Amino acid sequence: MKKIIPILALALACTALQAQGLTEEILQDISCGYAGSPSDKAIRNALNTTAINVLATNADAPVLDRHFTYEVKTKGRTDQASSGRCWLFTGLNVLRAEAIEKYDLGEFTFSQNYIFFYDQLEKANLFLQGVIDTAPLPFDDRKVDWLFSNPIGDGGQFTGVANLIMKYGLVPSEVMPETFCSNNTSQMRSLIARKLREDGLQLRAAYEGAKNRKKAGPALQELKKDMLGDIYHILAICLGVPPKEFTWTFPGSQAEASFTPRSFYDKLVGKDLENSYIMVMNDPSREYGKVYEIEYDRHVYDGQNWLYVNLPMDRIKEMAVASLKDNKAMYFSCDVGKFLNRKTGVADLEYLDYESLMGVSFGMDKKARVMTHDSGSSHAMTLIAVDFGSGDKPLKWMVENSWGASWGFKGNLIMTDDWFDNYMFRLVVEKKYVPGDILDMLSQKPVLLPSWDPMFLPEE
Question: Of residues 86, 181, 238, 334, which has the active-site annotation?
Fold first, then answer.
């Protein structure tokens, strides 16, 4: 009986849990949640023609000034247009801030289109090689399904910036300017994805049809190379052909100089991006002080997976402030759409008062929002400023966005420190600003997370 009673109790409990459809009695009870008071009716009338976030605007929210204790001086604002390339614009904006300071270049920009060409080509190779690597697995395997669900995309993160630049170098924007397809990527991306899925099926069929599957590798590689030729053709038509050499005149100089993309990068930046930086994350749903790696979350097959150290927010701020004090911008990502005034470019938890408008409370903390998929990193920007006011604790921060100079505050977004705590997720900082105990964490064996983990969608 000692064994039967718990099992019987569990069965009865499950039956009770399952018998909870919406009956007439339940509907009658829950309908009391709306009283139909004059204030309810007034809100209903207003929402009939007005957006929720407009009515939720808090008239009592404090006004933030535009003063910052430490601010990296940058010039010009970039615009990713209708594309998901925020990670690329952000990475290049970090580097161009250094180049502008070093050579007094004015409103100089690196060519986003040049790196984007190779990003798409490398991602195509990553997918096709992933299909080859997983060819022995059944088609309904989770990893195979993920590959065919995500053959290519615009989004990414800083590891891609580092791997692509160290492999292909950089060129100025006028050498390979933006095109309609680079600014409006959806149709090109859709066609390439369709072609890659078709190619992936052919690679799996070739593996299945091989007489000796263990020796099928060379034949599959030749087939893959032909497929990549088609992708290169599409990219060249849409984005242009990347230059191997070019001439460029430094501002204030009268003489042209010849460069390759790599020699140009070495001249203007010359930093080992793959080993000079560390990515840190604030994800309270996972253990702090641990190193995590995301499988297949890279841009280049022979490059690096996304790897980061998970840290509490106070340690991240410590490094961010040290970098800003030294006039060094940083790659930063967050959940950009939350409590954001797009006209003023201010992100403030007090900006929108949904609770007063809707008459219900919203009580999840950051950990709960991450665990329930309510929040996650969606957009990368360039962290350029912090303000302490008259105290020793940050009051607000500022990032350079890539939505054009007319957006927000002169193309920037200003966030309160409370907003930073709640919706900032990732920061890439030079190792020279990282305390020794955090650098020592990199010696850990990383915890490998699956590529489909929803927290690690690429920034767009």
Answer: 86
For 360-384, the pLDDT digits (tens) are: 999 999 999 999 999 999 999 999 9
Tell me whether the CATH fold assigned to 90-268 matches the one assigned to 273-456. Answer: yes
Dihedral class, residue 327 (left if φ above 0, else alpha if ψ from -120 to 50, else beta): left
**Residue 53 appears among annotated catalytic residues:** no
Looking at CATH, the fold of the domain delimited by 273-456 is given as Cathepsin B; Chain A (3.90.70)
Residue type, 365: D
If we measure between CA atoms, which residue out of 433, 454, 126, 139 comes closest to residue 280? 433
User: How do residues 158-167 score in pLDDT, each as one tens digit?
Assistant: 999 999 999 9
Using alpha carbons only, how large is the chain's radius of gyration in Å?
26
> Looking at the domain covering 90-268, what would its CATH class be?
alpha beta
Which residue among 299, 334, 341, 379 is the active-site one? 379
379 is known as an active-site residue: yes
SS3 430: strand
Which among 310, 401, 412, 422 is annotated as catalytic? 401
CA distance 373 to 134: 28
pLDDT at 429: 98
Determine the average pLDDT of the residues in 287-296: 94
In this prediction, residue 2 has a pLDDT band, given cuts at 50, 70 and 90, of very low
What whole-number distance in Å separates Cα of residue 397 and Cα of residue 382?
11
Give residue limits of the domains in the chain. Answer: 90-268, 273-456
* 181 labelled catalytic: no
